[in-house]
Amino acid sequence: MTFLRQFRLCVILLLIFTVACASTQDPQRKKKAEAARNLGEAYLREQNFNMALKELLKAESLNPNDPYLQNSIGLAYYGKHKHDKAIRHYKKALDLKSDYAPAMNNMGNSYMAQKRWESAIEYFEKATHTYTRLADRNMLMTCISDWMNKHHSDS
Known about the structure:
Layout: H1 3-45, H2 49-62, H3 67-79, H4 83-96, H5 101-113, H6 117-154
Helix pairs in contact: 1-2, 1-3, 2-3, 3-4, 3-5, 4-5, 5-6
């Protein structure tokens, strides 16, 4: 085998090995991120905002594209009265999941704490419309399911 062929074979094997390792680490990263998020949210429920933030930021370093995590980080900053940082994370949560009504509501709370009334009202209204739309969708799906079950059992 020539040197060039050996080199190509080594590069191909290295690429395969790299892809294989990356794909096995991704689920482990997500599990670690989820564990840190769960611990951070437990600290949030206890209103231990410093420890919550420590765990939530650790989770963010592992999985920054989790809208629920971004919302939780916002809540931790809100608890520390750092409303600008809280708003940044609520916005990130909404960038990741545009119909995430709890983040809209929390954004309204942060704006209200800053006495930015118009912005607060805007986000409370968005949250209300989103909750209503989701509730209407859920009610519609329940009606369709009930209708299908009734008509399926008749046949």
